[in-house]
## 1
Amino acid sequence: MDKIRDVDYTVMTQENIPEEVLREVDKRKEKEFRMTFRDGENLYICLGYGEKDRGGYSISVLDLYEAKNGLYVQTELVVPKEEKPVDRVVPTYPYIVIKTEYQEKPVVFL
């Protein structure tokens, strides 16, 4: 898609995610998910990578831009470097919530 402009955004910390968004993320986090949530002023773009067998994962936003027919977002799951084995496996659920200005355009996940 032809990029019109890059879109400004903020990656939300867990403490700053609106309660209704956090509830929906919690419902979906065990499996991969993609969803959006809109309020009057903001658009929240949420992506989760499902259950992982240990902590240390992170998610990078590679691109977020506006095109004629939508907002395009691309993320990447960053896998932790191999460390010494752990005795107890504690599953984690890496996800990201991106806040940007509300727009009527659909969100396309790349």
Note: The radius of gyration is 15 Å.
## 2
Amino acid sequence: MRLIDVLYCFRLRCAAMSESHSIPFIAAAQVRAALPYPALMEALRRAFADADQVQVPRRHAHALPGDATLLLMPAWHAHQHLGIKLVTVTPMNRERDLPTVHALYVLSSTETGVPLAIIDGEVLTLRRTAAVSALASRFLSRSDSRTLLMVGTGRLAPEMVVAHCEARNLQRVIVWGRSESKARDSVGRIRAAGLPDHVDIQTGPSLAAACAEADIICCATTSTEPLLRAAWVKPGTHIDLVGGFRPTMREADDALMTTAALFVDTQEGALAEAGDLTQPMQAGLLLPTDLLADLGALSHGAHPGRQTADQITLFKSVGSALADLAAAGLVQELSIQ
């Protein structure tokens, strides 16, 4: 039985047990409508600034048959919401012409434990991931940034581009992927996702040349070998690394990781899961103290972010249940209005 079927049955059972309390299911289209990027970025800024009020245990990973994985990501605020994201990763689904990742989010009251909503977890994750990067860009990219390079053509690419356009007054987007045809397809999907009309978008056949033109580089891939090289990046660039969420993954070379000013979404998650950090550290090229600040410190002003116009800044995110909880709370709040 698929995870969505299990949660649907759970919803039906809870409704049958109590006629006075039905649990709404908030579907993908409703989630998207409830999470406009300006509002979501502000909700995330408040959440990360108030991170000491939220308990975020490390995520649980369980092996399932067929090389599949079940991930459980809980978080709770002492006086607000309790949430858990349930994710199944099933690599064999590629052969079934199905998505490899399915996710649902269960939001409850921390005080009473009463379930408040079951939320489509895939759109929730896409939107909060892009909004976290865009929020970080407000602290770390130059305010006069005009050209964005999007490295990667997956489902995150349209969300990342549109969110970055909310953070800065971008005029041009370059899309690069290993497959030129997929890059062209991605251009169409980005336009359809809400790219502002004034923004010019095109593919970039050469990654090195595209890097040299970009003010902001967003990389969202599953690469296990570095794609971005320090020699290609001009002074003043902001790098946004999103895709490498396992210690075996890399998106930037050692030279870039050791020359850029480094920032992360959360220290604990990044130091445990980000291969772009753990591999240079294992090689003795980086220390944990080389991380200048996390998004919490940026959000409540403990660190000013970018220091100079020619500084190369780099933000590495691996995802946080704190961001899921903030996004889910906003979905629930706006969906009942």
Note: The first strand starts at residue 25 and ends at 26.
## 3
Amino acid sequence: MTTHKPPLTVLLCAPRGFCAGVVRAIDAVEQALARYGAPVYVRHEIVHNKYVVEGLRAKGAVFVKELSEVPDGEAPVIFSAHGVPQSVPREAQDRRLFAIDATCPLVTKVHREAAIHAKRGRHVLLVGHAGHPEVVGTMGQLSEGAITLVETLEDAARIAPADPENLAFVTQTTLSVDDTAEIVAALQARFPAIVGPHREDICYATTNRQEAVKKVAPLVDAMIVVGSQNSSNSQRLREVAERAGCATARLVNRAQDIDWGLYGDIRRLGVTAGASAPEVLVEEIIDAFAERYEISVETVTTTSEDVFFPLPRELRGAAAE
């Protein structure tokens, strides 16, 4: 006797999942392993996804918190996609470590902007989340006191720079587009002379994934964002879904983490994935719903992506070998 499964329409957001910077970072570790063999050391998680990290660990990547954990020798050490403070490559150089920088080029763009502003005598305001590796890396591009973190609208209202006529701002690349626009508008209202980036710092992938969620969230009973709890861009997708009208929006790492009590009588489910979440985990979660529901899958596409970043210079020959 077969159990009747209720119907469920899955609206699959596109774009979703891996961005060009994440693909480049993961490829960098895999190419380094292929070219130089294990171990390849990686400072911090190469991207914020446990499945990806565990997969690379199984192939011979060794993840460390700091360079002090990397032994002297010729084994490569790779800096994660989130970027690092200037002190890290300096330490690698002092120790003659073979360092490969897999920082996302769009994060490097923010680093360069901040450095140029500081060189021109401007105090830099960084809109971002304290403690996130990208923020730590960006703040570490400048000398202490040359950059101030702004996390909230309250911060924007409260800060008292020494020279309000000589300010610039940059932002973390994985923020909520709408939240950031509010904070930037508040800063511009208080400091009309503040200088911003030529092109906004929030990356194309973050923006595109949030736009797709905004389109799908009002149409569904529940939304699942595939991604890790420590992934900033994934957390923002969950928040965007809630604001766009989906009361049941959850960040889920793997199918085993689904709280089935939330989805009993739903008829329409939205699914997306953060920029560091592989498509295999999206498929795993859809398969888990297919075991309980008679599903039909529709893809909702808001834009197409064709961005590609070449591997770090030290590995560019490796891909062809």
Note: Residues 20-104 form a domain with the Rossmann fold fold (CATH 3.40.50.11270).
